[in-house]
Amino acid sequence: MKTADATIEQQPPEPEEDIRPPVTQIGVIGWVRANLFNGWFNSVLTLVTLYGLGKIAPPFFRWAFIDSVWLTDGRACRAAAGACWSVVTSNFRFIIFGFYPYELHWRPLAAMLLLFALLFYSRDRKHWKKSLLYLWIGGLCIMGLLMRGGLLGLEPVESTRWGGLPLTLLLSVFGLTAAYPLGVLLALGRQSRLPGIRYLCIVYIEMIRGVPLISLLFMGSIIFPLFLPEGITINKILRAQVAIILFTAAYIAEVVRGGLQGMAKGQYEAAESMGLNYFLTMRLIILPQALKIIIPPTVSILISAFKDTSLVVIIALFDVLKTSQTVLSNPEWMGFSPEVYIFVAILYFLGCFSMSGYSRRLERELDTG
Amino acid sequence: MEYSDTQKVPFWLNPKVRGVFFQLGVIALVGLLAWYLISNTLHNLERQSIATGFGFLGKESSFEIGESLISYSSADTYARALLVGALNTLKVSLIGIIICVFFGTIIGIARLSTNWLVSRLAAIYIEVMQDIPVLLQLFFWYAIFYELLPSPRQALNPMEGLFLCNRGVVFAVPAAHPAYKYMIAALALGAVCAYLIRRWARRRQARTGRQFPVIRVSLAVVLGLPFLVWAAFGMPTAMDTPELVGFNFKGGATLSPEFIALLLGLVLYTAAFVAEVVRAGIQSVSKGQTEAAMSIGLRPNLVLNLVILPQALRVIVPPLTSQMLNLTKNSSLAVAIGYPDFVSVANTTINQTGQSIEGVALIMLVYLIFSLSTSAFMNWYNKKARLVER
What we know:
The structure holds 2 protein chains of 2 kinds.
Chain A: H1 2-10, H2 27-35, H3 40-66, H4 74-79, H5 86-90, H6 92-97, H7 106-122, H8 130-148, H9 164-190, H10 195-210, H11 213-227, H12 236-261, H13 265-273, H14 278-293, H15 295-308, H16 320-328, H17 337-368
Chain B: H1 15-47, H2 78-111, H3 116-130, H4 134-148, E1 156-159, E2 162-165, E3 168-171, E4 173-174, H5 178-208, H6 214-232, E5 239-240, E6 243-245, E7 248-250, E8 253-255, H7 257-284, H8 287-295, H9 300-330, H10 334-337, H11 342-353, H12 356-385
Helix pairs in contact in B: 2-3, 2-7, 2-9, 2-11, 3-7, 4-7, 5-6, 7-9, 8-9, 9-12, 11-12
């Protein structure tokens, strides 16, 4: 007993604060050890990657920023060692607006700003009400009016002169809004118990998904005029738009089908037991739930539709990619393709990245709710 | 109120009758639309005096095609020109798919790496490549190869026998020698042997439980047989090196800038999607599976081969196939940079003959054949790989 007491007395009092972990396991050093140099394989990998980055990044940085020229003419560009961003700055308005009359550029600009404002407003799920739908319809009408003119003292602008970024946005936004109802109908048809309707929808969906968009665009630009009665012509943009709608609808149909198949069977049975007929069941019970769970995949369809509009270059519509190529065919700016293409790539990247970020956020929100 | 069996439901409320009525209605509407479009088309064709039908396929094409796997000249028929185009599409798609799956798998695994730097870089690659239209990427690479590389006289020469210039990539290949033909035959023979060995080893393991080092032996057979043939022919090492003659290279093999730009663009774009598919597949196998396999004493490579991969592949393969199909369909963008794929040749044909309907129909038909045959194969594979629950 006595010895035990003695040992207790001999022990120094406990220090007030906890013992801190060794310096190699916390802070910057600890993080580097845990994430970059855990094990010999990862250490080698890190060193090799760092070496590769060191070889590539500084010369690129030098080319893009230090040696680059920003606000000169073509001749000064050729003398410079780095990137010639002047090709973008001096042709900025042409790349963005195409052949739209120069003094009326404020109109497509206003239309685009209105579109961005509407998109930004619709981000919040609290605003998803019926009034939002009317807001969109009104907004799209105003955008059309701004682009087209001819009313309220606005000078009319032929659609053949539309181009650049507004055209890209127009094709993707209208493409999706028109394809969506068609896609829902196709998906319902594919799930239908009536074989005639089901096979019709299956053939359409599988056929469209089996062919590249470019073949539909060719069809739109060369064959549609033959389909129409003599004397009636529709403009090139509308023809491309129809092709994009027909194409996107098939992909939306498959996404919607996924949502329909994800619904519990009990939902159908409950609706039936309440005496609802097919249309009421779909409108009141099934579609509101199914369309909610497919919002994230729908956003990814919107992203690919936005990227796919670049294909209209091949049928010679002046979207933002075609206007940039037109700049490059000017002898003064020939040979500066990387700069121009990097600029257009940044535009597309910003659009797609914000949409995919939004889709991820929605997925998180809908997951818990 | 009294119900009796004799009380009939009026026929317009009978679901069967309604079903037939709806179907007939929809089919009649579609038929009417089709008839309207076709009659307009026929009328327009008559007015513009364009002949219909595929008769043009037998006529002389009178245009040249830059690269071809089979012999072709402008004196050949349109049918042969289209065949050349289809083969070019197949060539770029097959090579693209192989490289893309390999590269995409590496990126997908890198995305899951515990190394922060590697995983970040892979994530950035995936996000950036997915968000830039593939057509823009094609234009970018084509501009790099066609506009920015020097002419053959000032070609870059990063290593011996390899030249980079605006005519494409020129590189040395082994000079023709009869040995190579036999070596290819030996390789095929080796592959057949490897297959038989694997089958035999599986049966033996099922019967006796004894294992056989299949991979090592098959590798030895597959690589060893061609090597033996090569040695038997006296080990020919002569190379056919490209040399600058006048304004262009002679000898060696050339990959055109169009082909390289198309391949590079398609592979880099699709690899980002493949990486996401691979990552999702690997993550879908729960950690408990690895732990369970370890706890029954399997070695790490067996854990991967017998437990993880079969389960991950079941998740990976269907979306991977759709990415392969996407690559094939996107190869049609070749028309924008002048690589003579099927769409490009068909487009030229349409412009020359004016047979637009037939031309577009042919394009759709060829791609439908590609898609449908791939999905038929996939259905077969899915049936084979389906989870067998006991």
